[in-house]
Amino acid sequence: MKYTRILIQDTEAPYDSGFSRGMMGLLHGGYVRDIGRGLFAFMPMGLRVVKHIEEIIRDEFQGLDGEEILLPLVTPAGLWSETGRDVVASEELTYLLDRSDNSLVLAPSHEEALLALIRQVITDPEQLPRFLYQIQLKFRDEDGSHPGSGLVRGREFIMGDGFSIHPSYAGLNNFFPRVFAAFHRIFRRCGIAVFVAEGAANFLGGAGSYEFLMPFRGGEHRVVICQSCHYAANQDVAVGLFKNRTGKLLALEPVQHTGDACLDELHRSLGVPRYRLTRCQVFLTMGGFAMAVLRGDQMVSLDKLSRVLDEPVIREATQDELFELGLKPGYLSPLGLSEEIKTAAGLRTVADSVMADSTNLVIGGNEDGKLWVNSNFGRDYSTDLVGDIARVDESCRCYHCGGELRIEKVTKLAHLIRLGSRFSRRMEFSLPNPRGGLIYPHLGSYGIGIGRLMASIAEANTDTRGLLWPLGIAPFKAYFVVVGRGHTIQQIAGHVYTRVQDVVLYDDRKIPVLKKFKDAQRLGIPILLVLSAASLQDGCVMLGHRRLCPATRVPFHQIPKKIEELMELEEEMRQQHAGEINQRTT
User: Which pLDDT value is given to residue 269?
Assistant: First the structure.
């Protein structure tokens, strides 16, 4: 493909400095354009990169005996009501009405649509297991989307979805290692090193959730990693050992407090450390409300709270909702909470297990200005449930080996979840069991974001000189520049180009050569081919790769072979680097 104006663009726009260097490379290289908050257009060069990533994903998914489908982006809202995710994911759903006033949803994920499909076409357990996949647009109206996030937090995004359907949980469990291996190959072929950590289920639910992550200082997720045993988990689900805070039980005493009752103010006015304060928060759940009770130096994890409650937590209750429930914001407490209020509000109370073992804490009194000093769980109050509901931080020790923990910022590139039979049961998808009764098929969901993967590849492959694509996904493997405008050299250039035109971008613009060299570096095309009068004398071009080899004379007929050799060398280096990352982080 020769030069066209839309392929190579003079892009010197002063984009928001909040963008990461990889995202800046994509914008300045003319790969994508920002047309709204979290909304990006892929330009011709960018779309070529996307297509190369899609080819890799298709290849690996087909290696799992996958069958490609395409589900609609717009799905009936009733499907989301069947699973209850219209409530759980309400803040991320975008609704619209068709001309007949039917309610529709722009799908942020496609589990419901998949079940709606397969319950029509799979009628016998003998048709299972199956692995279906798609590459499809999604729309997720995330609050966290902002201009500096770029493709990593785009509201509209392309995702490669895999769905496996099994007659039993054992079948699903046995299939997981094959998916793990396929995803590792995808990332290696895309030129980035990743590690795997236990993941948060978010609004999907399910059990056995794992995330493929790339270390990134500007990442939007945080992972907890043990520096001794290399345990790794999303901070929302990680387990750890908080420092024990116990002592001789003291007498419970009331205290009057004026002013703000937030933890910061209590810490200052009462002169007590945060671990001697009690944090109480009320959350809206699928079944009503729940009050989480933690130590003041802890933060609640909604994923953990959902697990203990065995129902999804939707969001924190508003002040208006607290007043309607008869609760006092700032003085929330399970101590003195009447059964009448609990019953009327459908309110359950949950104590964190670390808080329950701590002694002599300051806690609210459910009345304006009233606090209790030296409160103790079990003696002065109890809760409906006790469990691990706190987010781990770096003050904790590893639950498994006692080692030091660190929290690292990462970008989440893929998510693998064992959904089990939850969706099948809620959407009444069952099959006759040959031994009697019914089988509710077990599902696995495997998603990989293509836009954020593209941005992460750019981030991992940008140095002080700019972007440099891995050969396997670059829009073109080589950038061909001719020095000289004579008829002979132009004719030979055309002959050379016919040998490699499928993988080479031929810049035949009538502009200064130095400008072409600058554009080659800005675009990050890995190999530079230069034909000049000097190299022409011995039938060669100068071929160089910024990282893999200096400029070298290569005969015309050996150009394809040399490109293949560089691809093999790059693959060897990738495998070595991936091994180093895994050693450090998993």
Answer: 74
Quote the CA–CA distance of 214 and 454 in Å, as a whole number: 12
Residue range 137-160: mean pLDDT, rounded = 78
Q: Which residues pair with 68 in a beta bridge?
A: 133
Assign 440 to helix, strand or coil. coil
Contact between 325 and 303 under an 8 Å Cβ cutoff? The reply is: no
Mean pLDDT of 364-389: 93
Other CB atoms within 10 A of residue 102 CB: 11
Tell me the whole-structure pTM to 2 decimals.
Answer: 0.88
Contact between residue 209 and residue 200 where contact means Cβ atoms under 8 Å apart? yes
- Please tell me the predicted confidence (pLDDT) of residue 8: 60
Residue 143 binned pLDDT confidence (cut-offs 50, 70, 90): low
How far is 133 from 110, CA to CA, in rounded Å? Answer: 11
539-564: b (≥16 Cβ within 10 Å) or e: ebbbbbbbeeeeeeebebeebeebbe
Cβ atoms 427, 119 nearer than 8 A: yes
At position 446, the amino acid (one-letter code) is Y
CB 575 within 8 A of CB 567: no
CA distance 358 to 295: 8
Supply the pLDDT for residue 28.
87
How far apart (Å, rounded) are the C-alpha atoms in residues 258 and 137?
Answer: 53
Q: Mean pLDDT over all residues of the chain?
A: 89
Question: How many C-beta neighbours within 10 Å does residue 164 have?
Answer: 27
- What's the pLDDT tens digit per position in 104-127? 999 999 999 999 999 999 999 999
Residue 476: φ, ψ to 5° = -140, 145
SS3 308: helix
Distance from C-alpha of 558 to C-alpha of 555, rounded to nearest angstrom: 5
Return the sign of the alpha-carbon dihedral for residues 388, 393, 397, 401.
positive
Q: Among all chains, which residue has been given the structure tokens 């007590």?
A: 272
In the numeric block, the tokens 């050799």 are attached to: 565
Strands ordered across the beta sheet of 504-506: 504-506, 478-482, 527-531, 540-545, 549-555
Tokens of 573: 């280096």
Alpha helices (H) along 190-317: 263-270, 302-309
291 Ramachandran zone, left/alpha/beta (phi>0; psi -120 to 50): beta
pLDDT bin (cut points 50, 70, 90) of residue 88 is: confident
Angle between helices 450-460 and 21-28 (to 10 degrees): 100
Cα–Cα distance list, 334 to 253, 257, 573 (Å): 16, 18, 58
Candidates 455, 416, 334; CA nearest to 162 is: 416
d(CA 445, CA 210): 11
Joined tokens for residue 577 = 């680097």
The total of other beta-carbon atoms located within 10 Å of residue 137's CB is: 12
Residue-wise pLDDT for 194-237, tens only, equals 999 999 876 555 667 899 999 888 788 899 999 999 999 999 99
Number of DSSP helices (H) and strands (E) in the chain, helices first: 17, 33
pLDDT, position 257: 79
Three-state secondary structure along 523-583?
Answer: HCCCEEEEECHHHHCCCEEEEEECCCEEEEEEEHHHHHHHHHHHHHHHHHHHHHHHHHHHH
